[in-house]
Predict the 3D structure of the following.
Amino acid sequence: MKFLTTLMEKPWLTPDSELSPVNSIQYDQSKIGRTALLFFLMVVTILFLLITVTFLSRSQYYDFQALSGQPWLPFTQPTQLWLNTISLIVASLALQFAVIFSKKMQMNTSLVFVSLAAIFSCLFIIGQLLVWQKLTNTGYFINSNPANSYFYLYTGLHALHLFGGFFALVRVLAVFIRCTDPKHFSKNLSLCAFYWHYLLLVWILLFLLLTATADTYKTIALICGF
Amino acid sequence: MDYIAIADRDDKSHHPNSFFSKYIWSQDHKVIAIQYSITAIAVGLVALFLSGLMRLQLGFPDQFSFIDPSNYLQFVTMHGMIMVIYLLTALLLGGFGNYLIPLMVGTRDMVFPYLNMLSYWTYLLSVIVLMMSFFVSGGPTGGGWTLYPPQTILPGTPGSDLGIIFMLISLAIFIVAFTMGGLNYVTTILQARAKGMTLMRMPLSIWGIFIATILGLFAFPALLVSAIMMMFDKLLATSFFMPAIYSLGDSLQHTGGSPILFQHLFWFFGHPEVYIVALPAFGMVSDVISIHARKNIFGYRMMVWAIVAIGGLSFVVWAHHMYVSGMNPYFGFFFATTTLIIAVPTAIKVYNWLLTLWRGNIHLTVPMLFAIGFIFTFTHGGLTGLFLGNVIIDLPLSDTFFVVAHFHMVMGVSPIMVLFAAIYHWFPLFTGRFLNTRLGKIHFWGTFLGTYAIYLPMHYLGFLGVPRRYFALGDTDFIPASVQTLNASISVSAIIVGTIQLIFIINLFWSVFKGKKSGPNPWHANSLEWQTPQCPPQHGNWGEKLPEVHRWAYDYSVPGVKDDFIPQNLSQQKVIMFNETNSSDHEGDKK
């Protein structure tokens, strides 16, 4: 709405900033990081969304065999995926606690939670690799069925997304070690936490999608008109 | 929090202090812009050369032994991809976006200068990978610039081994580079504008670049997704897009993939890409027309709304590129309707350019000539778009030269005309010197008339049913012999127009060193980029103090004001009125 109000302004009628209410706008540096992150996450959202659209469309072709539903299928009881999900939830919560403690200026506690977040994120990646290993050992190769192809594609891209987060987190820590400015650290860390929550949200949606049954795909595809 | 401009932070980490940090690994947006521009123009010249080779074959078939059908398809593919992505997108956003955004919104640099530098070097890497594909076994891909599977990755298509892999890798790298640059542009525009520079006080160039960048950020993921999935199909034998298929007598491993899915993804990127190129051009041409007609832009708000509306609509028209692929008739109806609706904001823009010119004090400078030329070529290309937007007319015309003529007029020649207008207009800002006017006028008339000599006859070829993408027409009953004469004439025109561009290149090099000195603000423009303490602007752009903005960028020929322009950073108290000058003259007389 604010954008629409902006678009209604008549710039030719306010020739002096002293007379203009816009003069009171003040820019906050912390907004810069947030704006860039929001746009980046929008880009990532579109990326996953588009793959999902193709997934739902592809799921209605004759050669698509869902990975869940029947007792012999790998994700009918996705225990390892549950464990991975819990790891990512813990990592996300740990980062949120790290932000809270950094705001209270308890930097040591905050750093402990950052370390916890990093460890559990690594556990998530290791867990995903174990799932890959289990799938290949049981004959679910990347090219043996489109559902498998999508599973490897989705999880690979999500892992890449997580590595991007790692890179940002390491940079935030490096800047903190160099400048030791707790306020700056707290603001940057809150962006990292936001990134991790987003990662978690994407993963939960992917988890639901990839472990759904053929009937569920059919229903969604019907609703979407595929 | 008190007002602190982002550019005035204590962080001096990107301040250049050596030759390398100043000109090579520079984080200064102006240097990065020039790096982008030089690379884009260089690779664009390669694409221009390829089009010359294609025209040689079409105009004079069987005369050149070094062009065979495979080469021809490779030339078509590489010409298209380079021109659309590696030249136009890179030059308009990487080049002009980088140069103009910080200067026009009144900041010292992009908000993430390091990321900006990384964006250029990543772009250069993508260009290098693309150029490498010319030298790999089998040559570059020849599957057409749309890279449709299954053809593109099947044996028998030129470059289906390594060429396509290099192309896909190069595209992925380009998209990473664009995303880094794009995040910078959007964040700088939203968060680092000078005091008083509201969104609705921004020049239209910035509006065009802003919305085009958002389009790019949202559309390029579609190309990235399709590139990754096609790479999987090619290298890992998955079946995202590849159907069960026999190739050269062998049954391939693929099963049941959908090539149409690829087309949807590709065009979900491909159509917004048209506007990624067009919107910055719309913005820049608006500024050039307003400045050189000494008149405020007609309907500024409408112009902004039109840019936003075109940006939004561009995401719901993609399937008009796929009418011949077959679709539900209701879909065709929907996409035809949205396509025709997009003509409304576009027409508003054309009317507003004309109404800006109407009774303006038109200076027929070289930039203005190119800008007016753009109005012609764009209207021409836009009108043929109305033909092709309709399913029933598109079906017979889709695979003919009519489409080639249409898209070259609307997104080839038109943005290029604006780019030339922009280069002639902002060259004094880049270098402190004018480009040579006489050479510029020869360049304009040669290019403008020459492109009509190329593309106007192509519409007739299309109506006759002459197919596009064909290496040679051979003996075909429905194509009269005169088509060959017309093709030869088009080829001669193309070679002349291509050669005329050398005049421009010579003018560029000559004027950098020997051009007439321009001094500051030679066009008497209002926008901030011309108000820097030094011209060309130095590192940091604004000297000690950032500018404050007091008005929009289009106060030209304001009644009662002494000068016919009022810079954006001039406060109302400092504007000199006619009666003030008269009274001071009278006082002078009395003394």
